[in-house]
């Protein structure tokens, strides 16, 4: 037995030895490969540390040998990634053995060995570069600009400027990320805006991106912010969007300013190129603003700036600047009280600004004493510097607003997402729909003006601050506003009744908790990605009876959500803009008999049902930019909507709509005598325009889209000659769109006082267009496309309100500004466009000059787009003071290099995006 066991063990040992000998010659090369790849990775890591040391001594190398060495270091890093991908592609022994035996490419071990020799040589060169750098005295990291340039920064920047120099030094050193942290309201956002403004002036970076991360930030949300700032197109998936962002930024220098970061963000998933720092001769830097120092560290910020509340003197200066010197020095007792009121703000910049503005209209010592007592009482139970303390100060400012209307309107701003840029027009439209503005005798234009005046009051009180308009590249913008996150949180606490607000929170489904829905009067779930409504959520919704529901910008809203809405019988306000409604009109809406405001814009609806007439209380109905080119409106529908004040029904197509679809609408208006304060509609012929004119002033045509026009050779709507029969429309017209017509001439000399927007497209026979001051004095936006026969435009010399001018596909256009009113003795004058922000010149192959002679001034220009303008060689810009580095010009590299400039000061205005 023992002999048999010994024989078996001997056989096993012999067999193992044979196997080791047999496979050893195959295993050894694979083991060598692992070792050599590991050695290469360690060597490259050491090389990268060496590169960091070189850049620490010389962040922007001017020496050609150093730049060449840096480029080769980057290539070595890329080669390591390639080798590791090949090596890691077959971790299984069998797979790696097959690769080793049969793949035609050389073994990974050989490639790793060859690259290792190259890396060692680079390290020797790097050592020599470092030795030479150490022998040279090291200068302190340079400032990005001369501090003298900071003199004309906004006064409200205050002592935040003290932190700016520190941030500027970061932009000049080799660190990739900087953290700015501190309590809410200490000025982190202001500091980032100052950095953006200064960087815009010196144009060191190709792109400076200030984006709001906000609470509950997702990758998709951050991508949307980045895409909006860069002016890129949306992509269908996160991966595709990341690829688009990466492709755009890969070969550019950029500074990413992340504001309001609450949690760790994966910038690589967003599409931000890695690594940050210096890469391929480009500078990639990030500044992270957060309330948490630890989070800044987690985001890779080695250096951090802590922003503190202001000291007593700095706080007093900021407070006094916002109150105004006249109010404070009116009485000696007021001066003493004012210092005590400023002290109650605890050095918090946000509070100093808002409380200061609230006190600017206090003229007597008694008023100041009462305010001081109120401030002290409001903060007795709060901890200084806490959010509750700040909320108490915001509450004081809120209570000091001049009217209940302003207070109610302010609170509704919190229904939008945190740090969202809200269009002023959108805000005014919403306030009208919510019934917050006084009914101005059915005059919608006056109601919008009143809404904008309320926004101005809230801005003056510093409860609203200027937002950004990415379309114009305006930073800041006078067309958008935003709510500071601290102020927004306070507003939600002050809201009367119960509100359910989860706007921009990255939701995939509505909240499931029944307690959240029960008793909620206003519900805002806008700007999410709600695509499902499970049964449990449905039961929660069954208990809800909100008065207003905001679901806009949920682009795949589920049918079950719409089914739940039909039970909201108390609903008066419903916004479903851009919610992915397709084909059939959602009949559930027809059950909402108390509905007063309905927005279904930017959807894909084929027809309106007769049952929509059940909404007898409906006042405002918006169906703009509908996807389909055909839409059917049943006869008698408009007459059944007896309280309708606003009706806007448009298609997004510029090709065609259903023939005579508008006839039932005009027939209803004529037969019923209905009064519509704002009508927006498509028309096919001038006869329909005349019918509308006869219905004025009961029916005010605020927006008209004209197509075909039955072979009309002119556009009589803008002609003074046709005012007797069309004056009723001219009086109220705000927006005019004309396309696909045989119009050959446009003589705009009629008095059209409210005309702000004109868009002309596919007017292929249009040869001449002239504008008088009467028709153009209030123009805000002009867009013309595919007007192939047009050779020049005759404008009044000064368009005081024009903000956007977009010309595309006008193949015959030779001069942008020309004609009788721009010649002769006027040629030497400077033509000024005081508010123009966006100028787009696209596909204009014969355009030779912006102006025949003389210069133009665009003091507010922020974005210039040029494509397909090969003959345009000169931009006759007269620079305005402080305009350097403020205009983003998107153009072809060769065209930019060939431009002729009147002087370097004109060229310095532009930041090219090539």
UniProtKB/TrEMBL annotation:
Domain NB-ARC residue range list: 173-324
InterPro entries: Apaf_helical, Leu-rich_rpt, Leu-rich_rpt_typical-subtyp, LRR_dom_sf, NB-ARC, P-loop_NTPase, Plant_NBS-LRR, WH-like_DNA-bd_sf
Transmembrane regions listed in the UniProt entry: none
Cross-referenced PROSITE patterns: LRR
GO annotation, biological process: defense response to bacterium; innate immune response-activating signaling pathway; plant-type hypersensitive response
Gene Ontology MF: a single term: ADP binding
Coiled-coil annotated residue ranges, if any: 30-86
Pfam families attached to this UniProt entry: LRR_1, NB-ARC
Entry keyword set: ATP-binding, Coiled coil, Leucine-rich repeat, Nucleotide-binding, Plant defense, Repeat
Family: Belongs to the disease resistance NB-LRR family.
Record-given protein name: NB-ARC domain-containing protein
Species, as recorded: Panicum virgatum
């Amino acid at each position: 037995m023992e002999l048999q066991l010994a024989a078996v063990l001997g056989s096993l040992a012999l067999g193992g030895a044979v196997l080791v000998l047999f496979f050893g010659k195959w295993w050894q090369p694979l083991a060598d490969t692992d070792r050599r790849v590991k050695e290469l990775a360690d060597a490259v890591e050491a090389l990268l540390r060496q590169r960091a040391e070189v850049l620490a001594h010389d962040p922007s190398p001017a020496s050609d040998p150093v730049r060449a060495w840096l480029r080769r270091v980057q290539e070595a890093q890329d080669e390591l990634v390639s080798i590791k991908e090949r090596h890691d592609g077959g971790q299984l022994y069998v797979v790696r053995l097959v690769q080793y035996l049969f793949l035609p490419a050389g073994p990974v071990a050989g490639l790793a060995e060859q690259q290792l020799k190259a890396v060692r040589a680079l390290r020797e060169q790097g050592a020599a570069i470092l030795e030479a750098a150490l022998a040279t005295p090291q200068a302190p990291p340079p400032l990005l600009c001369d501090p003298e340039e900071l003199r004309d920064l906004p006064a409200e920047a205050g002592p935040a400027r003290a932190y700016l120099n520190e941030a500027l030094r970061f932009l000049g050193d080799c660190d990739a990320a900087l953290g700015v942290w501190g309590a809410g309201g200490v000025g982190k956002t202001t500091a980032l805006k100052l950095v953006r403004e200064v960087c815009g002036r010196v144009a060191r970076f190709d792109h400076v991106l200030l984006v709001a991360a906000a609470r509950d930030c997702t990758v998709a949300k951050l991508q949307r912010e980045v895409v909006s700032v860069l002016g890129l197109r949306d992509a269908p998936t996160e991966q595709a969007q990341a690829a688009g962002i990466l492709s755009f930024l890969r070969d550019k220098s950029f500074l990413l300013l992340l504001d309001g970061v609450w949690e760790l963000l994966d910038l690589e998933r967003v599409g931000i190129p890695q690594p940050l720092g210096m890469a391929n001769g480009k500078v990639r830097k990030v500044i992270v603003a957060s309330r948490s120092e630890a989070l800044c560290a987690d985001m890779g910020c080695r250096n951090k700036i802590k922003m503190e509340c202001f000291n007593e003197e700095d706080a007093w200066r900021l407070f006094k600047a916002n109150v105004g010197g006249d109010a404070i020095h009116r009485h000696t007792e007021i001066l003493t009280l004012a210092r005590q009121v400023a002290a109650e703000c605890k050095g918090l910049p946000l509070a100093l600004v808002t409380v200061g503005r609230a006190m600017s209209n206090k003229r007597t010592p008694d008023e100041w004493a009462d305010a001081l007592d109120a401030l002290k009482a409001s903060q007795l139970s709060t901890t200084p510097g806490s959010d509750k303390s700040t909320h108490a100060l915001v509450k004081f400012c809120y209570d000091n607003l001049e009217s209940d209307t302003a207070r109610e309107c302010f609170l509704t701003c919190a229904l939008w997402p945190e740090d969202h840029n809200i269009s002023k027009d959108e805000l005014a439209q919403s306030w009208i729909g919510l019934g917050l503005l006084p009914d101005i005798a059915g005059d919608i234009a006056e109601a919008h003006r009143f809404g904008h005046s309320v926004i101005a009051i809230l801005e003056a009180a510093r409860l609203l601050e200027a937002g950004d308009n990415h379309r114009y590249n305006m930073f800041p913008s006078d067309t958008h506003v935003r709510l500071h996150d601290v102020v927004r949180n306070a507003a939600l606490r002050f809201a009367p009744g119960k509100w359910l607000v989860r706007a921009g929170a990255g939701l995939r489904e509505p909240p499931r908790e029944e307690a959240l829905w029960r008793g909620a009067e206003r519900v805002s779930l806008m700007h999410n990605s709600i695509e499902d409504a499970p049964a449990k959520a449905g039961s929660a919704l069954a208990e809800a009876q909100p008065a207003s529901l905001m679901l806009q910008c949920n682009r795949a809203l589920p049918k079950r959500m719409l089914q739940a809405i039909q039970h909201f019988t108390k609903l008066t306000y419903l916004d479903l803009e851009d919610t992915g409604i397709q084909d059939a009109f959602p009949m559930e809406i027809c059950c909402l008999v108390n509905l007063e405001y309905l927005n279904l814009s930017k959807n894909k609806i084929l027809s309106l049902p007769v049952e929509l007439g059940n909404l007898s209380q409906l006042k405002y109905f918006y169906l703009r930019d509908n996807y389909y080119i055909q839409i059917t409106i049943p006869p008698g529908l408009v007459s059944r909507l007896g309280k309708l004040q606003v009706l806007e029904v448009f298609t997004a197509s510029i090709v065609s709509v259903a023939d005579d679809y508008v006839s039932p609408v005009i027939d209803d208006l004529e037969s019923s005598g209905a009064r519509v304060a704002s009508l927006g509609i498509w028309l096919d012929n001038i006869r329909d325009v005349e019918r509308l004119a006869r219905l004025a002033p009961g029916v005010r045509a605020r927006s008209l889209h004209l197509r075909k026009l039955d072979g009309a050779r002119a556009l009589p709507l803008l002609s003074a000659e046709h005012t007797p029969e069309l004056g009723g429309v001219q009086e109220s017209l705000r927006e005019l769109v004309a396309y696909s017509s045989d119009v050959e001439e446009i003589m705009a000399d009629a008095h059209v006082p409210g005309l702000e927007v004109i868009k002309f497209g596919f007017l292929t026979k249009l040869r001449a267009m002239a504008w008088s001051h009467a028709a153009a004095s209030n123009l805000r936006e002009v867009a013309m496309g595919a007007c192939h026969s047009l050779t020049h435009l005759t404008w009044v010399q000064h368009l005081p309100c024009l903000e956007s001018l977009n010309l595309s596909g006008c193949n015959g256009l030779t001069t942008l500004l020309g004609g009788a009113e721009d010649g002769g003795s006027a040629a030497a004058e400077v033509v000024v466009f005081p508010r123009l922000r966006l100028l787009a010149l696209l596909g204009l192959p014969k355009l030779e000059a912006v102006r025949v002679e003389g210069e133009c001034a665009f003091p507010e220009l922020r974005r210039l787009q040029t494509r397909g303008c090969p003959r345009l060689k000169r931009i006759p810009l007269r620079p305005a003071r402080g305009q350097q580095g403020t205009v983003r010009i998107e153009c072809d590299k060769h065209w930019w290099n060939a431009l002729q400039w009147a002087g370097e000061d004109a060229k310095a205005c532009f930041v090219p995006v090539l």
